[in-house]
Specification:
With 352 residues, this protein is α/β, with parallel strands linked by helices. It is built from eleven helices and 14 strands. The strands form three sheets. It has a six-stranded parallel β-sheet with strand order 3-2-4-5-6-13, with helices on both faces. It has a six-stranded mixed β-sheet with strand order 8-7-9-10-11-14, with helices on both faces. Strand 4, helix 4 and strand 5 form a beta-alpha-beta unit. Helix 2 runs parallel beside helix 9, helix 5 packs across helix 6 and helix 5 runs antiparallel to helix 11. It is globular, with a radius of gyration of 25 Å. The site of riboflavin has 16 residues, from strand 10. Riboflavin binds next to strand 10.
Length: 352
């Protein structure tokens, strides 16, 4: 080999080393940031919604299905909704099965127990992407989560429940709460937020909590509600999915009231459901799915949305709210809701 050849080879070798070094630097940089927007190549052609339970009667699940379907239809993405049923012990296996089918570029779900199940699934199907609402997990490049500030959501409803109970019966001591099961976001965000609002409006009042044991038994929820009403509750607050229907029936039969969580649903029982605090989950899921499809979703991110962000709200705009709630109470509510919407008043939420 002559001298010219040798120096040309040496030059090539140097270029190769520098290129390899640059590539290494770049890959380290992107993994250090922990965040990774979906690459243009990772086209989303198919999406499955994993419903942990059944959609019917659970506002957050219905909204999730609607929002994801709307985005998929607009963007020509294949869509399916899979209901995992009420046996929570089977959810992990079912989620892994859905991912392992290899048919779905992204799986969308909602509830605080799902991120942990996604991590289990990723051990078996490492490439799967997940979008999870009503849950929190940060730093995994395959998972994007959005947690709602349910302390604020419940605070506004508790404040209303206190005002209205006192208006109906100044001697009322408790609001009846009918819950499907105990879980961390209920015990650490929803119930403490509700109680804080209740006490700010009616310092002597507290909550009386009854447990259904599942998310579908409306007959049992009705029995529990009757007992709460018999002990003097003017207002009932269900967190019970499909079982909440029994709470409404019991309240209606006795001419008492219900405050509603997760969606604006005054028309479900006009004059019985008097106040609704809601999550804009349909809008959120629609937006995030659309971002994912366009390659704009930041993977690994865990976002928290509060009332000032517009995805958590108290619906004081409905005609049925004005019709059934006295002006004097609406005026008091209006002050608190305005403060929460503007961020002048904010309540921190724990993560789960
Ligand atoms: N909410 C529902 O409305 N329906 C359900 O079937 C349901 N199942 C749940 C199962 C588990 C394990 C957990 C942790 C929560 C569940 N939720 C359900 C509650 C939901 O995440 C949320 O807290 C409430 O809807 C109040 O916003």
């Amino acid at each position: 080999m002559n001298a010219t050849c040798k120096s040309a080879l040496g030059f090539l070798r140097k270029i190769l080393i520098v290129t390899a070094f640059m590539a290494l630097l770049l890959s380290n940089f992107s993994s250090c940031t922990g965040k990774k927007a979906a690459k243009a190549g990772e086209t989303i052609r198919s999406l499955a919604v994993f419903v942990p339970g059944a959609a019917a009667g659970s506002p957050l699940y219905e909204q999730m299905v609607d929002g994801a379907r709307r985005s998929c239809e607009e963007n020509g993405v294949t869509f399916t909704a899979y209901e995992a049923g009420f046996n929570q012990a089977e959810w992990g296996e079912r989620l892994t099965g859905l991912a392992a089918s290899g048919k779905w570029d992204i799986i969308v779900s909602s509830n605080p127990s799902i991120p942990a199940l996604c991590l289990e699934t990723l051990k078996v199907v490492p490439g799967q992407r997940f979008l999870v609402a009503d849950g929190y997990l940060s730093g995994n490049k395959n998972i994007h989560t959005v947690l709602y500030n349910q302390v604020e959501q419940a605070y506004s409803l508790g404040y209303f429940a206190g005002l209205y109970s006192q208006f109906k019966d100044p001697a009322a001591l408790s609001v009846g709460v009918v819950v499907a099961q105990r879980y961390p976001s209920l015990d650490q965000a929803i119930l403490p937020g509700f109680e804080a609002g209740l006490r700010d409006a009616a310092p002597n009042m507290g909550i009386d909590v009854r447990l259904v044991g599942n998310w579908y038994d409306a007959a049992k929820a009705m029995e529990l509600s009757k007992a709460l009403l018999d002990s003097g509750a003017q207002v009932l607050f269900p967190i019970a999915g499909g079982a909440a229907q029994g709470v409404i029936t019991a309240a209606k039969d006795k001419g008492r009231s219900v405050v509603w969580f997760d969606s604006s649903n005054y028309s479900l029982a006009p004059g019985t459901i008097l106040a609704c605090s809601l999550l804009r989950q349909e809008k959120l899921i629609y937006e995030r799915v659309t971002q994912a499809i366009k390659g704009q979703l930041v993977w690994g991110e865990a976002e928290i949305l509060s009332m000032k962000d517009g995805y958590v709200d108290f619906d004081d705009n409905d005609e049925l709210y004005s019709r059934y709630v006295p002006e004097e109470l609406r005026a008091k509510m209006g002050i608190v809701v305005a403060e929460l919407r503007s961020g002048k008043k904010s309540l921190p939420t724990p993560t789960f």
